[in-house]
Specification:
Largest sheet: 8 strands, antiparallel, barrel
Number of strands: 10
Helix content: 10-25%
Shape: globular
Strand order of the largest sheet: 3-4-5-6-7-8-9-10
Radius of gyration: 27 Å
Distance between the termini: 78 Å
């Protein structure tokens, strides 16, 4: 009789545990529809006979895209020659950029908004922590400055290669900038280095302004 009671108690305990786990998995705040791919759960360690517990590691789909996020960037002239070329070390632009997980990128330049401060680009990963971007911008002159939008001056094409630091907080690399007039004639060719610092939800304004 005692043996039968013990078996019943064990069975009842397993049923209760199963019910609790099922209710937890179906909770509204933590539920995921079938086929959801927001994250991948991979085994971190498994001790087999030593332990009946497994430790799980949550791996994000963006784990290979360490450049994804918001950054403060600086474009600095370096290696330019010829008449009117900017000397090494002169900042050409300072602003903010966002790299998105879908391979697109957007820059809010330090240029006055009426002269064209928003420009767009795309990027791809080319190696371990290495990325290439292809960026286009439309500029305007200062004919109606400081309050009005100027006349179109033609497109600007910026390409570059950067590498993210091991801690993921910085990236650096090189860029080439070609500016054209409204007839698509090249009017300026600049090269230099680009550096950037990651912005997070904990970044204070005092560290970037």
């Amino acid at each position: 009789m005692k043996t039968a009671f013990k078996r019943f108690a064990v069975a009842l305990g397993l049923v209760l545990i199963g019910t609790i786990l099922t209710a937890t998995a179906r909770a509204e705040c933590g539920s995921f529809p079938l086929g959801h791919k927001a994250a991948v759960v991979s085994p971190q360690s498994w001790r087999g006979a030593e332990s009946s517990l497994a430790s799980l590691l949550l791996v994000s789909e963006d784990s290979n895209n360490s450049i994804v996020g918001m950054w403060k960037f600086t474009l600095t002239a370096q290696g330019n020659t010829g008449p009117g070329a900017p000397p090494d070390g002169v900042p050409l632009d300072i602003g903010f950029t966002q790299w998105h997980s879908d391979g697109t990128e957007i820059i809010n330049s330090g240029r006055p908004p009426q002269d064209g401060s928003i420009c767009l680009g795309v990027w791809e990963k080319t190696g371990k922590s290495r990325y290439k971007f292809n960026h286009f911008a439309t500029g305007y002159d200062t004919a109606n400055a400081p309050s009005g939008i100027g006349n179109p001056t033609g497109p600007t094409h910026i390409v570059g290669d950067v590498m993210v630091s091991r801690d993921g907080k910085h990236y650096a690399g090189t860029f080439t900038l070609d500016a054209y007039d409204t007839s698509n004639t090249l009017i300026a060719h600049l090269v230099g280095v680009i550096t950037a610092t990651r912005i997070t939800v904990r970044t204070p304004a005092s560290s970037i302004f």
